[in-house]
């Protein structure tokens, strides 16, 4: 199995290794197992996913002490150990496959190149919330915005600072701001190579919009037109 990491390096993991784990012919020995590390490097797990895997390995590890008496090994004991290892291997493989499905579904999602027509109501200057850099936003005005308008309003705070939105999931957002580039005919967006910091007021307003999205909508919009769980 081969997966392409984000920085362009190709990491190869033998398909036989994954098949062995799936068919219970072998199992990852620990979090430092070289083959297991290759798989996890390809998946690029988050800190939360790593903690979950560490907990899985910890729960599956039998502690030994130097003065503990070893029980006699019987056929029943061997059979029990076999099923424990088989279950542990299945759990590891299931976790890996589940992570692969989640990652692939995100990478293969269809994204809008532009924000749907009629989804936004903009001011004459081209803002959803023209004053989000000069005064605190209120819950009442946020409650009047659609999911698309909240998405753009939150990110136009960063766009004022010249931020660029390079993720595939933000392609429609970048195209929206590109259409508002400053020129002789007007516009306000000026893309900058470095990300300028927000003022305290801007940061508070961006946080207020995010909180409203998460609490009221149950997630944040992306350019695929779907709400995604707040992280």
Strand and helix map with partners:
Elements: E1 2-4, E2 10-12, H1 15-22, H2 34-43, H3 47-59, H4 75-107, H5 139-142, H6 147-159, H7 171-178, H8 200-217, E3 220-221, E4 227-228
Antiparallel strand pairs: 1-2, 3-4
Helix pairs in contact: 6-8
Task: List its traits.
single chain, 231 residues
Notes on the structure:
With 231 residues, the protein is mostly helical. The chain folds into 2 domains: 2-60 and 76-107, no CATH class; 139-228, Up-down Bundle (Methane Monooxygenase Hydroxylase, Chain G, domain 1). Helices cover 46% and strands 4% of the residues. It has 8 helices and 4 strands. The chain has helices at residues 15-22, 34-43, 47-59, 75-107, 139-142, 147-159, 171-178, 200-217, and strands at residues 2-4, 10-12, 220-221, 227-228. The strands form 2 sheets. A two-stranded antiparallel ribbon has the order 1-2. Helix 6 (147-159) packs antiparallel against helix 8 (200-217). The longest helix is centred in the middle third of the chain and has 33 residues, at 75-107. It starts with a strand and ends with a strand. The model is unreliable at 1-11 and 61-68 (pLDDT under 50).
> Number of helical segments?
8
**Head-to-tail CA distance between termini:** 29 Å
Radius of gyration: 25 Å
Total beta strands:
4
Shape: elongated
Multimerization status: single chain
How many distinct domains? 2
Main-sheet strand order equals 1-2
Strand content: under 5%
Helix coverage percent: 40-55%
Mean pLDDT: 77
Would you tell me the structural class of the helices and strands? mainly alpha
Uncertain residue ranges: 1-11, 61-68
Main sheet overview: 2 strands, antiparallel
């Amino acid at each position: 199995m081969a997966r392409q990491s984000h920085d362009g390096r190709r990491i190869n993991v033998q398909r036989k290794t994954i098949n062995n784990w799936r068919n219970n012919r072998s199992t990852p020995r620990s979090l430092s197992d070289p083959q297991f590390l290759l798989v996890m490097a390809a998946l690029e797990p988050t800190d939360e996913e790593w903690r979950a895997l560490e907990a899985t390995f910890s729960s599956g590890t039998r502690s030994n002490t130097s003065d503990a008496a070893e029980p006699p090994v019987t056929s029943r004991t061997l059979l029990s150990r076999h099923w424990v290892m088989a279950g542990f291997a299945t759990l590891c493989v299931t976790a890996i496959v589940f992570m692969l499905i989640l990652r692939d579904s995100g990478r293969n999602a269809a994204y809008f190149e532009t924000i749907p027509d009629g989804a936004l109501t903009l001011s004459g200057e081209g803002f959803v919330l023209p004053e989000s850099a000069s005064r605190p936003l209120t819950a009442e005005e946020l409650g009047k915005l659609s999911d698309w308008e909240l998405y753009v309003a939150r990110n136009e705070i960063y766009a004022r600072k010249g931020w660029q939105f390079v993720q595939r999931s933000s392609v429609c957002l970048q195209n929206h701001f590109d259409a508002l580039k400053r020129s002789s005919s007007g516009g306000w967006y000026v893309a900058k190579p470095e990300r300028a910091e927000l003022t305290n007021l801007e940061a508070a307003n961006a946080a207020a919009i995010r909180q409203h999205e998460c609490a009221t909508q149950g997630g944040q919009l992306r350019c695929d037109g779907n709400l995604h769980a707040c992280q």
